[in-house]
Amino acid sequence: MVSTYRWRPVFIDANRGIFPHSEADLTSDTAIHPPLLENIQFSDVVKLRSLSVKRDGAVAQVALWWQPVRSVTDVKDFRFFVHVIDDAGNIVQNNEVKLLFIDPDDAADRAIRLSEGSINVPLGARRIAVGFFRGDHAEEVLHANAGERDWEDTRVIASLPASK
Q1: Hey, which of 113, 130, 142, 156 would disulfide with 43, CB 3.0 to 4.6 Å?
Q2: Closest CA to 33 of 15, 61, 58, 54
Q3: Which residues have C-beta within 8 Å of that of residue 34, sequence separation ≥ 6?
């Protein structure tokens, strides 16, 4: 349905997370919001194209640009996690951002997709660790191929931007 109809820009902006995006959309967004992480593949399932964080005090907005490596059907039960961690790597705050997509039968099932969410950042927290898992209890955690990693390559670590 999304590709069949023309949508007004105001509707697309209000529902950004469910619309597939293009390389041009990703390039435009990363020019405005420089990524903390980019182009990291997790197992043979999903590729993190860009992760940016805008922080205002104790609240941070996370924008995750991701792309299925295989069909969206293979990704539908996965979630993205964001751990706010201390200097020793211990979890101070645990957050999840659901991967948003439309219909697994969508012809653009390998298009770039955007999932967004807010996380709470405790005072003094300076780093995050991110990754993907399947299921309600992390039955399957994907392995990253790049970046500073821990937990047997299932988390990628990045420094949080300073608060505004």
Answers
A1: 142
A2: 54
A3: 52
End-to-end CA distance of the chain: 40
Q: Which amino acid is at 89?
A: G
Cα 48 to Cα 161: distance, rounded to the nearest angstrom: 19
Tokens representing 84?
């706010």
Average pLDDT on 119-146 reads 90
Beta strands 46-56 and 149-150, pairing class:
unpaired
Q: What is the pLDDT of residues 42-98, one digit of tens each?
A: 999 999 999 999 999 899 999 999 999 987 777 878 899 999 999 999 999 999 887
For residues 72 and 104, the answer to whether their CB atoms sit within 8 Å is yes
Domains identified in the chain and CATH numbers: 9-159 (2.70.50)
Cross-strand partners of 145: none
The continuous run of DSSP H or E covering 27 comes out as helix 23-32
